[in-house]
Amino acid sequence: MADERFPGWHGTTILAVRRGGQVVVAGDGQVSLGQTVIKGSARKVRRLAPGGREVVVGFAGSTADAFTLLERLEKKLEAAPGQLLRACVELAKDWRMDKYLRNLEAMLIVTDGAQVFVLTGAGDVLEPEHDVAAIGSGGNYALAAARGLLETDLDAETVARKAMAIAADICVYTNGRLTVESIKG
User: Fold this and answer.
1) Catalytic residue among 12, 13, 111, 174, which?
2) Four-CA torsion 19, 25, 30, 34, nearest 10 degrees
């Protein structure tokens, strides 16, 4: 997510873990500019309820861009209640094709508790393997840690919290100030 207008902007690790009939989405709170932490308590995991159906979304990238995408996702979910995949595909198509939206720099993890999807500006709607998805600067660290922790008997929230702690110990763009939301499938 490099942008020539904002060189050196980094931040965020978002992780989703599905286990035991629930999905937990955890996001750290760090936003960095180069070697400086600008904010340590950003909230990058949100609970939406378009049409009364709950969805949890975590985002990485530009906050303003992510909020634009969240608004569009809510509209898609209102138009297709209970059809998360359809809403995500419609958003991804718009994101890829629309002249304005295609310049947005963000990634989303979206879940209704039964399904988990990663959405990108390249038009991707990916359902992760192994019941774990991660995005952002420390995403690969959190993903690897969570996949290893799924070999234990820990519940989804504990796996997510421990994996995020491991990522925060490794990635300088990730901190331990978490926002955690869970949703049952």
Assistant:
1) 12
2) 80
